[in-house]
Amino acid sequence: MTLTATTLGLLPVSAAAQTDVSLEVGASQVGPAAGLDGDHARFGMAGVRASFYGMEGSGVTASLMFGRAFGDTTGGDFVSGVLSSALRTDWGGGWSGGVDAEFVGFQVRNPFPYTALAFEGGPTLSLRAGPVTTTAKGVLGVGSSRVELWRRVDGPSRTFEDDLWRFGATGEVLVGTGSLRAGLLGGAHKSKAGNYTSGGGRLVIAGSWAVAEIRADWWDTPLGDELTGGVSFVIPLSGWSFRGFFGKSEPDPLTLAEPGSGSGGLLVSRSLYNSGLELGGSTVPYEVLSDSDGTARVRIRTDAPAESRAVAVLGDFTLWEAVPMTRTNDGWVAELEVPHGTHHYGFLVNDEWYVPDDTQDVVPDEWGRVSAILVIEGAS
After folding, report:
1. Are residues 300 and 201 in the same domain?
2. pTM
3. Do 56 and 188 share a domain, yes or no?
4. 293 & 240 share domain
5. 309 and 219, same structural domain?
6. Which helix (H) or strand (E) holds 4?
7. What does the alpha-carbon distance between residue 66 and residue 58 come to, in Å, rounded to a whole number?
8. What is the model's pLDDT at position 6?
9. Given this model, what pLDDT does residue 125 score?
10. CATH number, domain at 296?
11. Number of domains comprising the chain
């Protein structure tokens, strides 16, 4: 139950503005721990999510979710809260770094009271070299749990409290640009229950219509080997988004939750409020000026208000380094050499990420924003 809600929460959300408040409703199903007999638990869920993202992907997301068990099920009603933040900075030359942090609170009210609080966070370091991105992350987690059990419904109860901790690191090599990326990843963790190691792969397919991730991982845990994986997806649609996960959940070295034999869920989100930079005028995104030997000279243009101090363009074809644009009578303009293929890009206006609202082709990115799509097919 916790893992399903958390997995859905980590998927990116399409939002053209930097600030977004959304209402979410959905349902989930969680199977018993792998290797154990038992019924699947089914839940209805509803909650609210708020996020703010600024320059280079830094931002904060907060969510509060309520769950209600369906019918005759072994699961209990729950409430969960998540507060996550990311600090990102671009050092140039393809290097970037930052810090991630997440607070999670979870409470089950029946069939027995259970409460868990946890914090995890650590540094992240990335190097982008052409189509290859290498990322390393360190993580430290601490927390506590409390459960109250009765031998008889009308008898005395016993309370069990437990301190939780883990530390470790993960690494990933991701190859690809545009709509298709594939990579290998692994990690090593030490927790109160023992050592965990993992390795696996993932495939990310991104388009203006949706983003989907297919993932498979092998885990060596204190309780034995586990194979986990599944499919996650996001479908944005005019202020709405559909997010889901179907597969086998991963073990959690911090809370010591074991992988479920099968889980899935779907959340439907509706944006109640969003705000960001307001730029007027019609957007003519780019024009191919010349083409030769697999590379095109492209003129990229965007509008900006008169008070804009600085506008820059950045994308995978600049290794996500900001390239200053020049103010002209036709708006802000830059001319760049762009390889043939499909590329993602966006703008910085007064150091704030921006993609015009009337951009025809956009795709959610890994930072919870949207990026514009630029396609260079070569000379005819």
Report:
1. no
2. 0.67
3. yes
4. no
5. no
6. helix 2-10
7. 27
8. 32
9. 94
10. 2.60.40.10
11. 2
